[in-house]
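Predict the holo structure. Ligand: flavin-adenine dinucleotide.
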Amino acid sequence: MKQSPKGKLRGDKNASAQVIIVGGGLAGLTNAIHLSQNGVPVVLIEKHEYPRHKVCGEYISNEVLPYLSYLGIDPLAAGAVDITRFELSTSGGKLLKAQLPLGGFGISRYLLDELLYKQALRRGVRVIQDTVSHIDYVESEDRFTVTCKSADQLDAHLVIGAYGKRSNLDVSLGRSFIKQKSPYLGVKCHYEGDFPSDLVALHNFAGGYCGVSKVENERINICYLTGYAAFKKYKSIEDFQHEVLYKNPCLKEILTNCRPLLESPLSISQVSFLPKPTVDNHVLMSGDSAGMIHPLCGNGMGMAIHSALLLSEAILQYVKGEMKDRKQLEVEYGKSWEKTFSKRLRAGRLFNSFFGRDRVLALGLKALSYAPAILPHIIKQTHGEPLEVVDQR
Ligand SMILES: Cc1cc2nc3c(=O)[nH]c(=O)nc-3n(C[C@H](O)[C@H](O)[C@H](O)COP(=O)(O)OP(=O)(O)OC[C@H]3O[C@@H](n4cnc5c(N)ncnc54)[C@H](O)[C@@H]3O)c2cc1C
């Protein structure tokens, strides 16, 4: 990865025309490629090296495929697996099956983020490996100063916050959701073993749910979300899986017949689904920084990529002078974000309230077993239509 020359960008005469993107996950990289391929100079700052594994179910809705193709990315050609079927079980192992309305694909974040990163470099994006510690809007000059851990400072006219679900920056920007503790914990590991390539399964267990699907190279991704309170009673992830996940016979069968491929499972805590503003201190938020849907809906990545599309299109209009000022850019982006995602987020919160409450879920599944054709309609509530892009060049 390219390192930043210390302090070089500050004072650069073109700096105020630049967009700085903070965070190079799906949303940040998507914004970077979209803007740079439409002629906007972009600097992206990411704290980690590529590639790396991330906690994620790694099932992604097909709605993003046309847009990824516009960005020059073909996940299926890179090895992603096509997924068409869905299975849901209660913690007692009662199963319900359905065809996915639009379908999706399985790809590891290790590979997907790497594909986007390499495409961003090809498009001329300047990528700096550093941790951003402060983003300050200088009102008198209508520009930002972005300060990194290395002490480098960069100036920009626009800043995109694409730093994910939770970051040191939420604290320094004084975002209110960060003051509330979140009770959720995510765990993920890759395995080898037998699992159908065309299936994504969502298996429940007391206090959480676990997604299982294949990614490239015949790997099986097993990823679960659980409440921290239930988890902390056990000494280790292995104990928790043995004592809690194994109570679901579907999960027991998968976990006992598969062999882990990572040295140890990855975990993250403090996963928050609280609403967040799409613009904070004039920073335009993209992906999970703008809002996160419950992972059980299997559409956080689709939303992150879609939000980057909405934001990129709004910025391109602004850059071309089709919006009169920064305020209009912020308001228009906020409106399009709400219009696109608020219904799905509400549906996600509603579905989440069923999970972990096994009696309610069992009743719901019993009702669905009489009318299984309803399940694809329920899935549709948390997904969108395929993303078509109007070329703005
Ligand atoms: C348990 C779990 C399972 C999930 N399963 C699925 C699924 O199956 N399907 C699906 O579609 N979605 C799923 N999601 C959601 C999905 O992972 C996210 O919605 C998606 O990763 C959001 O992408 P992003 O670019 O906004 O954030 P991220 O991918 O988190 O990227 C943010 C980036 O910002 C960087 N960063 C953070 N702070 C700084 C800083 N200060 N300076 C510089 N860089 C910084 C980070 O290193 C990171 O690379 C799941 C989420 C969880 C928690």
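The chain is about 30% helix and 25% strand. The chain has one domain: 15-181+272-380.
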